[in-house]
Design a protein that fits this description.
The complex is a heterodimer of chains A (80) and B (568). Chain A is an all-alpha fold and 80 residues long. Chain A has a single domain (3-16, 26-79), classed as ACP-like (Non-ribosomal Peptide Synthetase Peptidyl Carrier Protein, Chain A, Orthogonal Bundle). Chain A has three helices and no strands. In chain A, α1 (3-16) crosses α3. Chain B folds into two domains: 7-436, Rossmann fold (3-Layer(aba) Sandwich), CATH 3.40.50.12780; 454-554, ANL, C-terminal domain (GMP Synthetase, Chain A, domain 3, 2-Layer Sandwich). Chain B has 568 residues and is an alpha/beta fold. Classes of the chains: A mainly alpha (80), B alpha/beta (568). The interface between A and B is medium-sized, with 28 and 35 residues.
Chain lengths: 80, 568
């Protein structure tokens, strides 16, 4: 797990995971798994933009692109 | 042939007695929604028919027949009675779309208690104000949500029981917490259903207004008469259908048409309890051979965004009837759905207070894309002048939507708030708070809300509630919340804030404030944008002029500013 994966995973666990007992990995479905809903996705996008000083276009911020920590990291890397 | 047949024929001499007759109900009889949705279907010989096909994360599936639904709701009702819950006690259902939510809803009704479903994404503050208003006696929830209840439990001495349906024994239970496992409970075959009558309270749904706290909309068991017939005629539910209502029973669509309508008709329905993605939705329709699909404009527009090519990857040929609710369905979405699914989504208009559909597009009726349709038979609807509250005869002239009170599912009051309830009736009309015009063929066309309430993704958010919560953040001095246009959700929440001395505006603070509201209220209420301002526009008496900020966001004329204190 690289630094970015670790950072995003920790943020998702701290901010969005309601069930403390649920185990989250870099491949756990976030949007389709109901952990992050479409409204909350906006705050997750904002976190990534602030943290990495990037701007993610709305048409790239799709539920599919945000569906796991791994997919999010791949998206972020496109804009760094 | 559709169930309604000819709309024009149906509106002649319509009487709700038709629905009563089909349900074999006579004035003064016992009427219990829990019984109608399970025991009656079994008595009709359909106990073995699938009632619920549920799918959760990872494709986990559970199936329940109508007899299973009967037994499970008996069992839950028996358990609740054992805890001392009795008629008219409020029981909150605070769960994701798991089977216990659907079965528990009927169990609560069977004992004559009042079901209070609440959206499971609500934060602790949103949960508290609703439980406090209803003085809820018990809450049924899941392990993942119990933390939110624990945060506020000390403030709620009236809340006697916190029932956890999926306790795994790993953590100790706290005071007032108890465990119920449907899988491990002994099924209750014989159960004495509480003899509720037409005006016995059934469901308490909360809805947001411009000012004040959320209002508890009280419905009664007689609402079934409307919900049954509208589900039959508008959703056109027929014996062999597989029905999918995508709404969460934390909101009224999810109970009126996600439980009561279909199950009182003995229809098989399926539920997908995972997050939204175009692929997962199309896959679910394909897998279950869904025939009737009732969804929301926000979801339809999200599917549009994913593209028409995506639709072609799945076999969706089972779909025969589509309908939509929650906010106005734009013409583009109607046209697109006809193109890709071979049939249009038909818009339906109603709200928490009306309990059942009011204005709708009917099967077989000419569809005018973007229109709300026509009144359901038996519903007297018009638009009235905003000043005189007299009906407007002129086609195309905008006024307030108005209904003559008296249909079966009409709310009976706002819980502990009779004054606000009475204020909804003017000049003999019930005013739902929306504006529209009627064309020369009698079709209604939505033009906007008549208040500051924000309709985001089909859910109403009170600007007052968000503004109050924002003031609890350490950095916020003043706040004003308005709707901002949004391509997918129609509207989203935008906040204007002034900061207290010592706090600097910036993106990190914006994110902190967003997350603060998301956790305290809900993701729906979270401002999608926060604008820092030095001052908020106010009247000379100090009241924040939201309408100026709203007009700016929507590119509208600002209007009269003579009462403005000073320029921002």
């Amino acid at each position: 797990m690289d630094e970015m994966q670790k950072m995003v995973l920790e943020y998702v666990i701290d901010e969005y995971l309601e069930d403390e007992d649920e185990e989250l990995t870099v491949d756990t479905p976030l949007i389709s798994g109901g952990i992050v809903d479409s409204f909350s996705m906006v705050s997750l996008k904002r976190f990534l933009e602030n943290k990495y000083n990037i701007s993610i276009p709305d048409d790239k911020a799709t539920p599919e692109a945000f569906d796991s920590v791994n997919k999010i990291c791949a998206l972020v890397k496109e804009f760094i | 042939m559709s169930n309604i047949g000819s709309y024009d024929e149906r509106i002649k001499d319509f009487s709700w007695a038709l629905s009563e007759k089909e349900l074999e109900y006579r004035d003064g009889d016992v009427i219990n929604i829990g019984w109608y949705c399970s025991d009656r279907i079994c008595q009709q010989g359909n106990g073995d028919k699938p009632a619920l096909i549920w799918e959760g994360l990872g494709g986990v599936e559970k199936r329940y027949t109508f007899n299973d639904v009967r037994l499970a709701s008996n069992t839950i009702g028996h358990f609740l009675r054992g805890l001392g819950i009795s008629a008219e006690d409020r029981v909150c259902l605070f769960m994701d779309k798991i089977p216990e939510l659907y079965l528990g809803f009927l169990g609560v009704l069977k004992i004559g208690a009042i079901a209070q479903p609440l959206f499971s994404a609500f934060g602790d503050e949103s949960l508290y104000v609703r439980l406090e208003n209803a003085r809820t006696k018990a809450i049924i929830t899941q392990r993942k949500h119990v933390g939110k209840v624990r945060k506020i439990v000390e403030k709620m001495p009236w809340l006697e029981h916190i029932i956890i349906v999926d306790h795994d024994g790993k953590k100790e239970l706290k005071e007032r917490e108890t465990v119920f496992s449907l899988e491990n409970a002994d099924p209750v075959e014989q159960f004495e259903i509480h003899p509720t009558t037409a005006e016995s309270p059934s469901v308490l749904h909360y809805t947001s207004g411009t000012t004040g706290q959320p209002k508890g909309v009280k419905h009664v068991h007689y609402s079934l008469i409307s919900q049954y017939l509208t589900a039959r005629w508008v959703l056109d539910l027929q014996d062999g259908d597989i029905y999918w209502c995508t709404a969460d029973p934390g909101w009224v669509t999810g109970t009126s048409y996600g439980i009561i309508g279909p199950w009182s008709l003995g229809i098989t329905q399926c539920v997908l309890d995972t997050g939204f993605s175009p692929d997962s939705w199309y896959k679910f329709i394909q897998k279950n051979r869904v025939t009737v699909w009732y969804s929301a404009p926000t979801a339809i527009r999200s599917l549009m965004k994913a593209g028409s090519e995506k639709v072609k990857e799945y076999d969706l040929s089972s779909l025969r009837h589509l309908a939509s609710v929650g906010e106005p369905l734009n013409a583009e979405a109607v046209i697109w759905s006809e193109k890709v699914f071979g049939r249009p989504f038909l818009d339906t208009y109603w709200q928490t207070e009306t309990g059942s559909m009011m204005l709708t597009n009917f099967p077989g009726m000419k569809v005018k894309p973007g229109s709300m349709g026509k009144p359901f038979p038996g519903i007297i609807a018009t638009v009235v002048d905003v000043d005189t509250f007299e009906p407007i005869a002129e086609p195309g002239k905008v006024g307030l939507i108005a209904f003559k009170p008296g249909w079966p599912a009409m709310m009976r009051t706002y819980w502990n708030n009779e004054e606000t309830y009475n204020s909804k009736f003017i000049n003999g009309w019930y005013l739902p708070g929306d504006r529209a015009h009627i064309d020369n063929e009698g079709y209604f066309w939505f033009t906007g809300r008549d208040d500051d309430v924000i309709n985001t993704g089909g859910h109403l958010v009170s600007p007052f509630e968000v503004e109050s919560a924002l003031l609890e953040h350490e950095a916020v001095a003043e706040s004003a919340v308005v709707a901002k246009p949004d391509e997918v959700n129609m509207e989203v929440v935008k906040a204007f804030v002034t900061l207290k001395p010592g706090f600097e505006p910036g993106p990190d603070l914006e994110l902190k404030i967003m997350n603060f509201i998301r956790k305290k209220l809900s993701p729906l209420a979270m401002p999608q944008e926060i604008e820092y301002v030095d001052n908020l526009p106010k009247t000379r008496s100090g009241k924040i002029m939201r309408r100026l900020l709203h007009a700016r966001e929507w590119g509208e004329e600002i209007g009269d500013t003579s009462t403005l204190e000073d320029d921002e």
